[in-house]
């Protein structure tokens, strides 16, 4: 006990969260490339700019007694996501002794690429004046993660998982693809009830957990790992299904190969997360360390050029294989 608990600093806390939250995290890690202006920091394990936000809703600007959030701004979306992670942390204390998810997350973020930028011009929505800029509304990843993160955030308010909000939250809507997205609880409830419901189930499960012990001021909840992963998996699958339908067109990707990869990757990750399949992936989650470091081109389809590492090639082949097997069965 002694050693484990005294090390229960940030890092330990994090690793205990990673198993259940790896999916959320993986979503963010694909977005932003390494800042070309800064030295590559291989030890930076969190999504870019993670440290510069604090996971507190009070960080958002307030106008007319409303908290204003722009879901197409990278930092705002990251903040929403960090708020969700921060609020759910406590329910996962004691998880993930094996750190499977942790490892996955750590490695994925290193291989992040410009997947939130605008196809075909990847300099749009890249870094602006040294900071991250927008998330392109024309990017497939930006679109798909919207359903996961933004709707989950609104559902967290709806289900009162997020409480004590200082002001009412207002998301800044975009006119582009207006009917694809929803920017308020009422709108999301009307348009994507299935995603809202899946998110609500997940939050309600967490909220129903009871403290079973308190060790050195850290309460441990009776969270069942398989159950919580099941709810998270369901939320993920529901959100991804909605998102993929809207973002299957080639114009949302840098190439057809990149589009197919996105589809296969999301499927592969779903398998990894599904509690029924987890035993098979637990030890092989490492395969995900090969998340391709750059956007794929159509030349990559047949020949994986030497600019990819062995691990990246392995991942690309694995996700294709999982997708094929899934298509057959
Ligand atoms: C904000 O709310 C406070 C307290 O309810 C109120 O006094 C104030 O007039 C409101 N401000 C605006 C701009 O609506
Ligand atoms: C993971 O942890 C469990 C319980 O702590 C242990 O039984 C299992 O062998 C571990 N698996 C691996 C792959 O280390
Ligand atoms: C890409 O966008 C940047 C910034 O808007 C612009 O300067 C550049 O000319 C564009 N490149 C192409 C090939 O359209
Ligand atoms: C934390 C962790 O598991 N890091 C691994 C990431 O991937 C590299 C290889 O690409 C491993 O060497 C690290 O151990």
TrEMBL record:
Top-level taxon of the source organism: Eukaryota
The entry's keywords: Signal
Residues of the signal peptide: 1-33
InterPro entries tied to this protein: Leg1
Keyword Signal: yes
GO cellular component, one term: extracellular space
Pfam families, per the entry: Leg1 (PF05612)
Protein name as catalogued: Uncharacterized protein
């Amino acid at each position: 006990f002694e050693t484990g608990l005294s090390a229960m600093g940030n890092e330990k806390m994090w690793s205990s969260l990673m198993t259940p939250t790896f999916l959320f995290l993986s979503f963010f890690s694909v977005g932003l490339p390494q800042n070309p202006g800064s030295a590559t920091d291989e030890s930076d394990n969190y999504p870019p700019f993670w440290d510069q936000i604090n996971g507190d809703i009070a960080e958002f600007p307030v106008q007319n007694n409303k908290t204003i959030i722009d879901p197409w701004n990278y930092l705002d979306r990251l903040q929403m996501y960090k708020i969700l992670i921060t609020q759910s942390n406590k329910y996962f204390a004691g998880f993930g002794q094996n750190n499977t998810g942790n490892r996955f997350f750590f490695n994925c973020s290193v291989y992040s690429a410009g997947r939130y930028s605008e196809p075909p011009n990847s300099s749009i929505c890249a870094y602006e004046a040294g900071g991250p800029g927008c998330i392109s509304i024309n990017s497939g990843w930006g679109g798909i993660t919207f359903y996961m993160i933004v709707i989950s955030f609104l559902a967290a308010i709806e289900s009162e998982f997020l409480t004590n909000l200082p002001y009412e939250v207002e998301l800044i809507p975009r006119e582009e693809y207006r009917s694809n997205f929803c920017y308020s609880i009422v709108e999301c409830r009307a348009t994507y009830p299935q995603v809202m419901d899946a998110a609500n189930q997940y939050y309600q499960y967490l909220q129903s957990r009871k403290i079973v012990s308190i060790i050195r001021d850290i309460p441990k909840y009776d969270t069942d790992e398989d159950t919580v992963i099941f709810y998270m998996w369901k939320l993920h699958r529901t959100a991804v299904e909605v998102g993929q339908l809207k973002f299957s067109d080639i114009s949302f990707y840098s190439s057809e190969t990149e589009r197919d990869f996105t589809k296969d990757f999301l499927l592969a990750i779903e398998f990894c997360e599904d509690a029924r399949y987890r035993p098979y992936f637990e030890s092989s989650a490492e395969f995900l360390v090969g998340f391709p470091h750059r956007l794929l081109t159509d030349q990559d389809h047949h020949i994986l050029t030497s600019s990819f590492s062995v691990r990246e090639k392995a991942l690309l082949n694995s996700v294709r294989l999982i997708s094929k097997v899934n298509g057959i069965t």
